[in-house]
Amino acid sequence: MSEPGRQITGGAGDEGGWWLLPDRLFDGTRWRNGCALHIEAGRITAIIPQGAIPSTQTVVRTALLACPGFVDLQVNGGGGVMFNNDPSPEALAIIGEAHRRLGTTAWLPTFITDTADRLDMAVDAVIATMGRHGVAGMHIEGPHINVARKGTHSAELIRPFDARTMASARRLREAGVPTMLTLAPECVPDGVITELRSMGVVVSAGHTAATGCETEAALEAGVNCFTHLHNAMTPMTSRDPGVVGSALDSAAWCGMIVDGFHVSDATARISLRARKRPDRTFIVSDAMATVGGPDSFVLYRETIRVEGGRLVNRSGSLAGAHVDMARSVARLVRAIGLPLERALAMATSIPADAMGLGHGIGRLEVGGKADLLLLEHDLSVARVFGDGQAL
């Protein structure tokens, strides 16, 4: 039996499996302190009280907190690579490993506004990589968005909804790839949202200048998510709820960036209190190439750099996020004031449920993958396990 601490050597190759005894255990939904996890062949095979484990098997005891690996539904890049710049399986491997080192074990490669041909390449890459390097689906963000709320997206590449994008979504779904598509509902023809939803695509409103009435109509048509709440969308005013107010008052899923730059801590706190369904709000990183990589990169032929902890373009405007999920969880707890269990759920089980990612992703449960983290008391990542192997 190992001593409490950080020397964790157990792995899926141990004959007969091994037991992990953490100081605290969060399974994605609730605390299960005092329990041990049995891990064998990359799966969790039992969760029982620590006092009931057999004395004959390998036991790893640690003073750290165990929780599911993070699930991030908006990852543009990492490790010095942007998916848009290199829509290939090789790029996904680099991005995935960069984020895995930081605690994200399941993620959606996010392809922002670009040409239809490059989107086809990105779809090919995701289908080829699905299930490896943490790739758990795909997020297509644009190009069918409102130029008035384009953010860092290229105005020249924004275009009306077309058959090419519908075909890309259909190809992903036919290959069994969970798919999210961000669009501006006021910019797509009638019937598009309904058709996408009929395929099982998560349709998310984002980069939109819709009114409250237009947003309500989109929700009726099937929109079931909102992309990076508050950012690149119509704010709530005294005379119109806009996209923000409609999102807060809806039962749809909502993603939010909590880096302290995209949304102020006070605004995040108020929004979480105001949501009709707070259990359907999750966090995303919206990470760019600088996460786990150098401090600058090129997007749309423009250099983006880290400045004062945030990513900016040459005009000083925000251009994506330079944050990982662990730092976001810590901010939810320390700056925004959430209980730790709620913050962890917003980074694990809630995003997994939003995408329907299935058994064992975003949760520690019997039969599920042994993708889990050990967190320090300051909530930094001490150790990452993928398929039961310490990485």
Automatic annotation (TrEMBL):
The keyword Transmembrane helix does not apply. The active site is at residue 286. GO terms for biological process: N-acetylglucosamine catabolic process. InterPro entries: Amidohydro-rel, GlcNAc_6-P_deAcase, Metal-dep_hydrolase_composite, Metal_Hydrolase. Coiled coil: none annotated. Binds 1 divalent metal cation per subunit. Gene3D superfamilies: Metal-dependent hydrolases, Urease, subunit C, domain 1. Residues 66-389 form the Amidohydrolase-related domain. One of its GO terms (molecular function) is metal ion binding. Substrate binds at residues 152, 231-232, 239, 262, 318-320. Its EC number is 3.5.1.25. Pfam families: Amidohydro_1. Its cofactor is a divalent metal cation. SUPFAM superfamilies: Composite domain of metallo-dependent hydrolases, Metallo-dependent hydrolases. Zn(2+) binds at residues 141, 207, 228. It comes from the Bacteria. Keywords: Carbohydrate metabolism, Hydrolase, Metal-binding. Belongs to the metallo-dependent hydrolases superfamily. NagA family. This is N-acetylglucosamine-6-phosphate deacetylase. It comes from Aquamicrobium lusatiense.
